[in-house]
Design brief:
The chain is α/β, with parallel strands linked by helices. Helices cover 47% and strands 14% of the residues. It has a single domain, classed as Alpha-Beta Barrel (TIM Barrel). It has helices spanning 3-14, 30-43, 62-73, 78-88, 102-108, 110-120, 136-144, 159-168, 191-202, 216-222, 233-241, 248-260, and strands spanning 18-24, 47-51, 96-100, 124-127, 148-149, 152-153, 173-176, 207-210, 228-231. A 9-stranded parallel beta sheet has the order 5-4-3-2-1-9-8-7-6. The two termini are 16 Å apart.
Length: 272
């Protein structure tokens, strides 16, 4: 079993909603990015999503776009991201999932990337702009390196494509609560629950729901029908606001502990 399998099995056993946190590698700089990831793990994040800084993050809203700009200005690249993960991996409990776009992988070479990611301790990879219909070869490359491939599913994803992603995916499936780019919202879209239900019919893989989550009540609501909640833009906003403050790491840790307060006992184990 992979670290992701172990994590979701433990969440199921404890009847708890998982918390998945997203940050951009190198934001606000490479050294403090390492400290932020360590703080997330210390605060109890169940999975760490680490975004690779990219010049054209078409799936991301302005908050994460600016994070990518800060990270790139600080020297953030795919290579520096893998070096960062390798540096902190020995002291990190949580699985680490790399979020990236196709271009950096093509530039490095898919096989070279898989080797380096495995050596760094990456547990899963999600390529945001790689269609599931074109993912077979890369999925096979990752599988050979013992890395889980994770797919993104939206409210407009057809049942056929959900089935395809379920057949190829490992670790978990990432459902996005609404169309459009990332960004925190006050309420969850009405169609989010329906999307999770459609995925459940076609797979036994855990389902994580993201895009727009920012508060403990969101985690609690998601836990009624999904296995984990993903918090990204709201956390990245905390990092942006505290980037020049000496208490950056403390504020990140406090925010995640606040979110985690809603995580106990909210998962419906029949869904897992």
């Amino acid at each position: 079993m992979s670290r992701l399998d172990d994590t979701f099995a433990a969440l199921r056993a404890r009847r708890r909603t998982g918390l998945i946190t997203y940050v951009t590698a190198g934001d606000p700089d490479l050294d403090r990015s390492a400290s932020v990831l360590q703080a997330l793990d210390r605060a109890g994040a169940d999975v760490l999503e680490v975004g690779v800084p990219f010049s054209d993050p078409v799936a991301d809203g302005p908050v994460i776009e600016r994070a990518a700009e800060r990270a790139r200005a600080a020297g953030g690249t795919l290579t520096s991201t893998l070096v960062l993960i390798e540096r902190i991996r020995p002291g990190i409990r949580a699985p680490i999932v790399l979020f990236t776009y196709v271009n950096p992988l093509v530039a490095m070479g898919e096989r070279a990337f898989a080797r380096r990611a495995a050596a760094a301790g990456v547990d899963g990879v999600l390529v945001l702009d790689l269609p599931v219909e074109e993912a077979d070869a890369f999925r096979a490359t990752l599988t050979t390196a013992a890395i889980d491939m994770i797919f993104l599913l939206s409210p407009t994803t057809t049942d056929e494509r959900i089935g395809r992603a379920a057949a190829l995916g490992r670790g978990f499936l990432y459902a996005i609560s609404r169309l459009g780019v990332t960004g925190a919202r006050d309420t969850l879209p009405e169609g989010a629950r329906e999307l999770v239900a459609r995925i459940r019919v076609r797979t036994t893989l855990p389902v994580a729901l993201g895009f727009g989550l920012s508060r403990p009540e969101h985690i609690q609501q998601v836990g009624a029908w999904a296995d984990a909640a993903v918090v990204g833009s709201a956390l990245v906003s905390v990092i942006a606001e505290a980037a020049d403050s000496p208490d950056l790491v403390e504020r990140v840790e406090q925010y995640v502990r606040w979110l985690k307060g809603a995580g106990s006992g909210t998962a419906t184990t029949g869904q897992l």
